[in-house]
Design a protein that fits this description.
The protein has about 725 residues and is α+β, with helices and mostly antiparallel strands. The protein is built from 28 helices and 22 strands. The protein has a domain of about 260 residues. Helix 4 runs antiparallel to helix 11 and helix 14 packs across helix 22. It starts with a helix and ends with a strand.
Length: about 725
């Protein structure tokens, strides 16, 4: 066991690939050979400058921003750059119709004008501890659900031991290589984060859904925040007495620009990949999961967009949710196309067949494909049902809120529960409802409910339907093959539910009654779907997950034993833990007779401009300044224009949004915000030829801040290198 754990650490530490662009490397285990390759390609920093626990290093400038993005410290006063879409919720939340920062942009001229970010936080990585041996020793001889239960208990215990709530220290262990290695990531969390600046939405989302996941791109996808702390530098909740954080490290900003072939390094928190997925998993994704998700999100976006076009207030209300739904609607559509185009399923099958021949004489591995096939055969009939629950039923804000009340109902009908406990639960539900109502758009949601109930009826096998639900709809609202039936049903739900009626809800809060909740049309519908799924299909999914994870752990362990040379070319899947990828600025040719340059410019942005268009309109002051070509120190010498975005070969995924793109000198040259459509299989399979990361050029960001926003105070705060 000791030798096995040690080998795992080594194969991460001493990995060297012929093409270094693929891979999300752990900075703690950045081996000498990998570091030497980075230096060969243009890195000028020492290993200690990249990652060091005992003294300041570049890793101290990289933060988890909010719940799912990356940010970077860019000044000695705690200034943070990240993407516009990462700060979108805070910007929208701070906006009103009278002061619409989302539409018009915002810049604080001094620290007193900065806007509190509410629940927004940033997390600094303190250190990474390898706890593999401790965890593995506790799991000896265990498999299946017994192993899962024991592992969860052990990880929770270690997390508690390495955390310090009083000092805002939180530890989260990440299982790597499908549970063959365990690293503890220790974070310090700062909860006073304030909005400093953001471009108008027309710039921050320029191109909208049409340009999403596409190159060429011309989007000013940035926002600016500041981290505050107590006067002695400790984390604290928002207080007027807090002061800007003095960080351990901040990134200097380069105005030197990029050229084809330049070294590029991206640090951040890639959210999740599954590149060691089985062929069966690829097939399930392309056959069922992805197409169903895309279909349901397409429906939701349609009805949201219809209402957003009608009224500025509605657009503001739905903007954040719409952006969130739209982002991965297009992603999963593109992912399926790429997986099929390059026959990733077939490639996986060949690798698995080779492994099966090797494993035939090894008892630990010789049955794993038989077990995998059985697991998928048992789950596949219910896979579509699960997507309909997560993306359809719970895709309706009203039904999602109604479903959240299930625990309240369970409490109210449970014998012996005190009135004090019920009151606490009702108070929590009341608080949740207030947030739900503030964000809810009834018109769009009513259409979503009508559509999802009809789509579920048509697509999910009849034998999996909630017993009696559709018979009841038919008897009261009409034929199940007519759209009007579902429209009438959804209208009745919205009109009669107490969840949308302040007076009825207030009566319920004063006198909580389980029967009243159970008979509510919205709750009854959500609960019918939910209890049907929970009782019959959730246990099947949990069993499938356990069996599939066990297979993945054993398969990956076997692969490393089968081919030690291949093991040295492996890197752990992304797990929203700090990683570094390195590559270069590079143009590419996605298809015959097409070649994309590595930068886009202001000229291209103006060429895309469409007056009044939802996605390609531009503010009048922006147009005036762009056409005047007053680019000053931000102008690019090669193009004689303002570079807006550029592309690199770096390996990133969701969670890297807002990540710094850093040159060989450790200087910030851009912010990563997207990938290209031709390589959207990257969560499951990396495309070494076509993969590109799309980044907003830092010179475009600073031009917008300086020339367009007039926020010279922000520019003066930066360490700018020319």
């Amino acid at each position: 066991m000791k030798k096995y754990v040690f080998t795992l650490i080594l194969f991460v530490s001493f990995t060297l690939r012929a093409a270094a662009d693929e891979g999300m490397w752990l900075p703690l285990l950045l081996g000498q050979q990998v570091y030497n390759d980075m230096v060969k390609k243009g890195l000028k920093l020492s290993k200690d400058q990249l990652y060091n626990v005992n003294k300041a290093s570049l890793k101290d400038a990289i933060v988890i921003f909010g719940g799912g993005c990356t940010g970077e410290i860019v000044s000695t006063q705690g200034l943070v750059f990240t993407n516009h879409h990462c700060g979108y919720g805070v910007i929208a939340g701070a906006s009103t119709v009278a002061h619409n920062y989302l539409r018009d942009g915002f810049y604080a001229r001094n620290m007193g004008e900065e806007i509190p970010g509410g629940s927004l936080s940033v997390q600094f990585l303190v250190r990474i501890d390898d706890v593999t041996k401790e965890v593995m020793d506790s799991l000896k001889g265990l498999s299946g659900q017994e192993r899962v239960t024991r592992q969860n208990s052990v990880l929770a215990s270690i997390n508690r031991r390495l955390s310090d709530t009083a000092n805002a220290i939180e530890t989260r262990i990440s299982p790597l290589f499908k549970g063959n290695q365990f690293l503890a990531f220790v974070y310090q969390i700062y909860r006073d984060v304030r909005l400093v600046g953001a471009p108008p939405e027309a710039l921050g989302k320029f191109g909208g859904d049409t340009d999403n996941w596409e190159w060429p791109r011309h989007t000013a996808d940035y926002s600016i925040f500041r981290v505050y702390a107590t006067k002695d530098g400790k984390p604290a909740r928002y207080s007027a007495s807090n002061v800007p954080l003095k960080p351990k490290w901040s990134l200097p900003v380069s105005l030197k620009g990029v050229k084809d072939g330049d070294f590029s390094m991206i640090w951040g928190y890639p959210g999740g990949t599954n590149r060691y997925e089985s062929s069966q998993g690829i097939k399930l994704a392309t056959d069922i999961n992805n197409p169903t998700l895309v279909k349901l999100r397409d429906m939701r976006l349609k009805y949201m967009f219809e209402e957003m076009k009608k009224d500025p207030g509605t657009k503001l209300q739905l903007a954040s949710d719409y952006a969130s739904v739209a982002n991965y609607w297009k992603f999963y559509e593109g992912e399926s196309k790429q997986l099929i185009k390059y026959d990733v399923y077939g490639q996986k099958r060949k690798s698995e067949e080779t492994f099966a021949r090797w494993a035939a004489t090894r008892p630990e591995y010789n049955n794993i494909f038989k077990d995998l096939d059985a697991a998928y055969a048992a789950w596949r009939p219910y896979a579509l049902h699960r997507v309909y629950m997560t993306e359809g039923v719970l895709g309706s804000p009203l039904l999602a809120f109604a479903a959240s009340l299930q625990s309240l109902e369970n409490l109210m009908v449970k014998p012996g529960v005190s009135s004090a406990d019920i009151k606490r639960a009702v108070d929590n539900a009341n608080n949740s409802r207030a947030n739900f109502i503030a964000a809810h758009n009834t018109a769009s949601d009513q259409n979503i409910i009508a559509s999802v109930v009809q789509m579920y009826y048509n697509d999910v096998p009849r034998e999996q339907h909630p017993v009696g639900l559709y018979d009841a709809i038919k008897s009261e609202y009409g034929s199940l093959d007519k759209t009007q039936t579902y429209q009438r049903y959804a209208e009745a739900i919205v009109k009669n539910t107490m969840l949308l009626d302040d007076r009825k809800w207030a009566d319920f809060v004063r006198n909580p009654d389980a029967t009243q909740l159970q008979q509510d049309l919205a709750y009854n519908l959500a609960n019918s779907y939910l209890r049907n799924y929970q009782g019959k299909y959730l246990p099947a999914y949990q069993q499938f997950q356990t069996r599939n994870n066990e297979w993945g752990r054993l398969y990956l362990k076997g692969v490393m034993e089968q081919d030690p040379a291949k093991a040295k070319m492996m890197y752990p899947d992304a797990t929203f833990t700090m990683r570094v990828s390195y590559g270069k600025v590079a143009s590419y040719s996605p298809r015959d007779a097409v070649r994309y340059d590595y930068v886009t410019t202001m000229k291209g942005m103006l060429d895309k401009y469409k007056p009044g268009d939802y996605e390609f309109d531009l503010p009048a002051d922006f147009l005036a300044k762009a056409r005047a070509r007053d680019f000053g120190q931000y102008k690019d010498a090669r193009t004689n224009d303002l570079v807006t975005c550029f592309i690199t070969t770096n390996d990133i995924t969701g969670g890297n949004s807002g990540s710094p793109v850093i040159n060989g000198n450790g200087e910030l040259i851009g912010l990563a915000f997207d990938g290209n459509y031709e390589a959207l299989s990257h969560k499951l399979a990396f495309d070494k030829d076509l993969n590109r990361t799309i980044n907003v050029d830092i010179r475009f960001v600073l031009w917008c801040v300086d020339k367009l926003g007039g926020a010279s105070n922000i520019i003066k705060e930066l360490n700018i290198r020319k």
